[in-house]
Amino acid sequence: MKQVVLVTGAASGLGNVIAEYFAAQGHQVIVSASSLEKAENAKARSPNAKNMFALKLDISVEQDFHAAVQWIQQKFSKLDVLINNATVTKATPVLEITAADFDWITQVNQRGTFQACQIIGKYMADQGYGRIVNMASLAGQNGGTATGAHYAATKGAIVTLTKIFAKEFAAKGVTVNAIAPGPMESPIVHSVVSDEKMAQFIQNIPVKALGSMEFIAETCALLASPSAAFVTGATWDINGGLFMR
Question: Which of 169, 228, 215 is nearest to 1 (CA)?
Answer without folding.
Answer: 228
